[in-house]
Specification:
Layout: E1 3-7, H1 11-23, E2 27-31, H2 34-43, E3 48-52, H3 60-70, E4 76-81, H4 86-95, E5 99-102, H5 107-118
Parallel strand pairs: 1-2, 1-3, 3-4, 4-5
Length: 120
Amino acid sequence: MKKILVCDDDFIILKLVENALKQEGYEVSTAQDGNEAIELLQDNEFDLMVTDMHMPHATGLELIDFIKNELNKTLKIIVLTKDASENTTVDAYQVGADDYLLKPVNLSILQIKVKKMLNS
C-alpha cells in the first residue's frame, strides 16, 4: 500500500484531502504544521507528500528542501497553494516539487494526479 503524507494547517482542507486519498486506498498520515511534518518524515517512509505552501514552523518550500537535502529522500511532492503567482510556482518546482494545485483543491483532480504519480 502506498503511503502519503498530507501537510496543511487548515484542518478542513487536511481532512478533505486525507479522506479523498483514503477513498483511493492509500495509507495517509497528516501534519498540521512544519514541525509535525518533519518528525513524520524523519520517522517514516512515504511515497508522496501533499503539502500546503504556507504553514507555521516550516513552509512547504522548506519541507521540500529538508526532504531533498537533509534526508536525501526521493518522494513525489504535490504543493497546494492559494498563491497563483508565477514566482510561487517557479520556486516550488526549483526546490523539487513535482506538481502543484491551486486552492480550493479539486479533489478529483488531486486523486488523478496522485494515481498518475504513483502509477497505481
